[in-house]
Design brief:
Mean pLDDT: 83
CATH class of one domain: Alpha Beta
Low-confidence stretches: 1-20
Shape: globular
Number of helices: 15
CATH superfamily of one domain: P-loop containing nucleotide triphosphate hydrolases
Strand order of the largest sheet: 2-5-8-1-9
Radius of gyration: 21 Å
Helix content: 40-55%
Number of strands: 11
Distance between the termini: 38 Å
Length: 352
């Protein structure tokens, strides 16, 4: 990032209007950076792909969420490379990385840090020892194994970007991302995340089982004499700069109206609700779902090298933005209906 870009960075990090109109200065600022951002993002995806076989769509969605400044919940059975993916993302971005293995006996202080006695400091015998949450990228491994008390300790960090210990608030490093994993198969010894905490994740990304060809490549890559390494692509501060660009990507009123109609169609009590939602959904998406659609669409547009988001950008992020915000009823469980099934119906029924 060049020194002459500093005034632009300050301008781009200022709050954007509630409904972006085609502001000439904002569009020009985004257009000046588009080529470099698009090229570097592709380099990042290639560098991660050198370590993670397949899962291109998962890598894509994680990077889009990071551009948008949001947290990601990765769901998949063990052994699919979720932890390796997060390590690779940290490596290419040059950000600090910490990992927490969630277990039922994990305490909130094990995450946030605690006050410890230090007799060497005169007058102040206690000092704050930061926990692993003080990192740019936090991998919350098997987050649904922690008790609700410990999960709530992470909630403030995710929402407020601060940690409060002993009545004092400590700011977390910027940028701050939580990339959490959970196993959908195991129910013994797990504590399902409450809706309030699920809503704090910008995206929920499903990690699918690899194809036979990908399995063959994984075996060759991970059992050889040399382990693959990762190349750092970004410099400190560049992710925050890109996040400022994302919020200056134009979303005209028609696109925003479409995102609003999608959210309303997920709520069974509204006139806009689609038939599947009326039958199978107990509670639909709220305002954070709308924010996820719009921020995700802006990030998709920036990645594609466009200064304005379109209908297809909204549709592309709809599954990741909405699947964890649909609370299904017992009838849906009995008939094997999933949130993705309803989102497919949603995208077919609510047209631009």
């Amino acid at each position: 990032m060049k020194e002459q870009d500093a005034p632009v960075i300050k301008e781009l990090n200022e709050p954007a209007p509630a409904v972006s109109q085609p502001d000439r200065e904002a569009v020009e600022a985004v257009e000046r950076a588009l080529g470099d951002v698009t090229r570097r993002l592709r380099e990042m995806e290639q560098a991660i792909g050198a370590m993670i076989v397949g899962q291109k769509e998962v890598v894509h969605q994680v990077l889009v969420a990071m551009l948008a400044g949001g947290h990601v919940l990765l769901e998949g059975v063990p052994g699919l490379g979720k932890t390796a993916l997060v390590r690779a993302v940290a490596g290419v971005t040059g950000l600090s990385f910490r990992r927490i293995q969630f277990t039922p006996d994990l305490m909130p202080a094990d995450i946030t840090g605690t006050q410890v006695y230090d007799g060497k400091i005169a007058g102040e015998p206690f000092r704050f020892a930061p926990g692993p949450v003080f990192a740019n990228i936090l991998l919350a491994d098997e987050i649904n194994r922690a008790t609700p008390k410990t999960q709530s300790a992470l909630l403030e960090a995710m929402q407020e970007r601060t940690v409060t210990v002993g009545g004092t608030s400590y700011p977390l490093p910027r940028p701050f991302f939580v990339l959490a994993t959970q196993n959908p198969l195991e129910m013994e010894g797990t504590y399902p995340l409450p809706e309030a905490q699920l809503d704090r994740f910008l995206f929920k990304v499903n990690v699918d089982f690899p194809s036979p060809e990908e399995l063959l490549a994984i075996g060759a890559l991970t059992t050889g004499a040399e382990e693959p390494g990762v190349k750092t692509i970004l410099q400190p501060g560049e992710i925050e700069y890109w996040q400022g660009l994302v919020r200056r990507v134009v979303v005209v009123k028609d696109i925003m109206d479409y995102a609003v109609r999608l959210v309303l169609a997920t709520r069974p009590e509204t006139a806009e609700a689609i038939p599947g939602v009326r039958r199978f959904v107990r509670y639909g998406s709220g305002p954070r779902g709308l924010q996820a659609l719009l921020l995700g669409a802006r990030a998709e547009a920036l990645r594609a090298g466009r200064p304005g988001a379109g209908y297809e950008d909204v549709r592309k992020v709809a599954r990741a933005a909405l699947r964890h915000r649909l609370i299904l009823n017992f009838e849906a469980a009995a008939e094997g209906i999933t949130p993705d099934d309803l989102i497919e119906e949603l995208l077919s029924g609510v047209r631009p």
